[in-house]
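Page 47, continued from p. 46.
Same chain as before, 369 aa.
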Amino acid sequence: MGYRKLWRGTYGGDVYELQRKLNQHGYNLDVDGGYGVKTQAAVFDYQRKNGLAVDGVAGDETWGSLLAREQAIQKGNSTGKQVLAGVSDETMDRLAGLEQGYTPSDSVLAAEAERQSIEALQPGEYSSAFDEQLKTLYEQMESRPEFSYNPEEDATYQRYAQLYRQEGQGAMEDTLGKTAALSGGYESSYAQTAAQQSYQQYLERLAQLVPQFQEQARDVYDRQGAAMKDRYEALQKEKAEEYRQWRDKKDLWQKEMAQAQSRYEDLRDQDYKNYALMLKYFQDKAAAEQRASDGMRVNSGKASAPAAKQASLSSTASDSLERAMGNYLKGGDEDAARTLAEKYADRMTPAQKRKVENLFGKFGVAMAF
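Result:
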């Protein structure tokens, strides 16, 4: 029987078996299927004491050592090929199978698959699409110069100035012409002074408009600043809503992950308890048969008949697998969902297969057994 490489943080039936084998060497671990600090410390210690590479990881070398030592310890015990006086073949076969170690049931394996499928849906770290926009807008607001007004740079003022100068020039020429007519057509200093005064009046009227133009420019400046501020606040609200949605998605994932972990652990613990009870039952039964026969009956030691075809998946296992496949499909991992379906296809009932096909169909994926 092969075992997978284990390290701190892993869970499953192989961890149960590792803990059980370590306990045969006096480590007194809780056989809970979780590779925690105590299990890692026991592996470190076992590796040091047995001349193995000390890394706290139960790999091929560590498993090989444990299995070899277990075989030496159990040399006189039941292995399925040994003969025990007074024990029936049926009891010996069952006991031999159980003594090979705990094997997770379909329900436990399906619950573990569901947990892994939810883990694959973990939302990534929060990253906002609005950060760059907010940064750019903030820099624009911070670098915006204080308000100042220069009529020479005001296009509106310049249009009015051109108009007033044109009108002033016309008024000056008109005044000069009228004054010259009164003096017989000759220009005089009086005429020039009167014409210049007429032109200056237009310039003074233009100058009186400067505060009005300045006020208008200030209003435009303030409105532009307010618009930038409103846009910044609007982006902040959009980012807050974006973060809220991400947080809700993260919270939902954590809740679903916790529920799946709890289901897995409950099924695993109950499954192992059932295994331990069955092991003790057949150990006691073998001992009782030996006592009852007083060693007169001997089991044949022959291999039992081939095992019957594996039973169909339980409803608990089927439901967990269906949820797991749904999670993979929801996450866009069609291959993982299909692999899981094909792995258990020969164990599914026709009704279970139809449910799986319908599930794939909901996501637009063809699936046929």
